[in-house]
Amino acid sequence: MRPSPPGLWLKVPALTIALCGLAMPGRGDVLIGTNGDRFTGRVISETAESVIFESELAGRLTIPRARIRELQRVPTSEIPSLSPFTNAPPTTASQSTNNLWRPPGVGKDGSDWLELKSGEWLRGELRYIQHRKVEFDSDELNDSSLKLKDIRQVLPSKPMFTKFEGRDDIYGTVVISNETVQVFGPEQLNLSRDQLTGITPGGKREIDFWSAKASIGLNLQSGNTRQANMSASAELARRTPSTLMQLDYLGNYSVVQGTENVNNHRLTTTYDIRLNRHWFLQPLWFEYYLDPVANIAHRETVAVGVGYYIFDQDGLEWNFSGGPGYQNTRFKTVEFGQDSSASTPAGVLQSSFKIDLTRKLKFNQTFSATVMSEHAGTYSHHTVSALEFEIKRHLDLDVSFVWDYLQNPQPEAGGAIPQHSDFRLNVGLGVRY
């Protein structure tokens, strides 16, 4: 059995000590659940029925005593005394003992296990690893999205599909330990974690490849002005170590004094095949859009292309893709003598930017631009800038700004020309699966 790397030091609130200890592991109270989960941090308060524990990983937890197997407290006399002029950690007998700790169920209980660099352990189910993100369904925390750089060990209980840069998918038992990834199967590999592209379960349940999110916002107003505004968005994704298929929906509807002034819906489908850490193929990009208020009864655009990741790091992702395509538009009404539809070759360019501002706050921006014939509109783009704040696990507060632009809108039958730009600010609650 391999020993676990050092655990965390207890965080001391003094500024000078904190500055000196930024690069050091911490120590603190340890809570071990009946299922084997291990959390480090500090006990906030406790009663005969439960314990409130501040975990370095999960924040504040309220855990019934019936689900606690062991609670190890660090006495005040053992809190390390640090000098602001040194960063050497003290050595104690208790620390040496904790370094060897590993949940007894690892490799025996049929569950996946995960150890963070903080020394905390989680028991549950590994959903996937992709784009330096680890999705893990924990017994105690439910679905958690973690950064790969914060994880020391991943010990799945069953074989999985593993993808390394420049290699085909490999099926077998996989172990991530420190900076090494080992795969035991028809082909045994021992490679650096930097070469890992992704890991997904396989062979039994198709649902393991899928994830979903939905958000809805609603605003109702009555009195002198009767108004109803509704916005909705949804995302459905299927991931394997080397592919990503994603369906995105965005819809907006508004009625003022009984008159419909907003009614647009956009459905986008993409399929990406990862070639290596930077390049990917996009054999399918499809968008369906309708906006009767802007005189678009429906519009379909299909394209193929190639993409490149400028950044693909923990907490920072930015990629571009684009290629040739074809677009067909049918207008709601047109002036006398004008074609009611427009079919044209098109060029499509997309950008996706994501950054973790804090552990709970994320910023995403997607941009899609299309160049087409003059009758179809010459140029259009769709931009969504969104802030996602995690309220609780599975529940987010979403604030997004949407900008739709069409350079040459088609005049309606009465000669009215729709606006070039359409701006919207949406606020809603999102649920993740």
Give a written overview of the molecule:
The protein is mostly beta strands and 433 residues long. It contains 2 helices and 27 strands. It has a domain of 223 residues: monomeric porin ompg (Porin, Beta Barrel). Helices cover 3% and strands 60% of the residues. It is flat and about 85 Å long.
CATH class of the domain at 210-432: Mainly Beta
Q: Do you know the CATH architecture of the domain at 210-432?
A: Beta Barrel
Query: What's the story with the biggest beta sheet?
Result: 12 strands, antiparallel, barrel
Seen as an oligomer or otherwise, the chain set is single chain
Number of helices: 2
Q: What gyration radius follows from the Cα positions, in whole Å?
A: 26 Å
Contiguous uncertain segments of 5+ residues? 1-26, 76-99
The share of residues in helices is: under 10%
Strand order of the largest sheet: 16-17-18-19-20-21-22-23-24-25-26-27
Write down the overall geometry: flat
The chain-level mean pLDDT equals: 82
Query: What is the chain-wise order of helices and strands?
Result: HEEEEEHEEEEEEEEEEEEEEEEEEEEEE
| End-to-end C-alpha gap | 35 Å
How big a fraction of the residues is strand? over 45%
Q: What's the number of extended β-strand segments?
A: 27
Structure class: mainly beta
CATH topology of the domain at 210-432: Porin
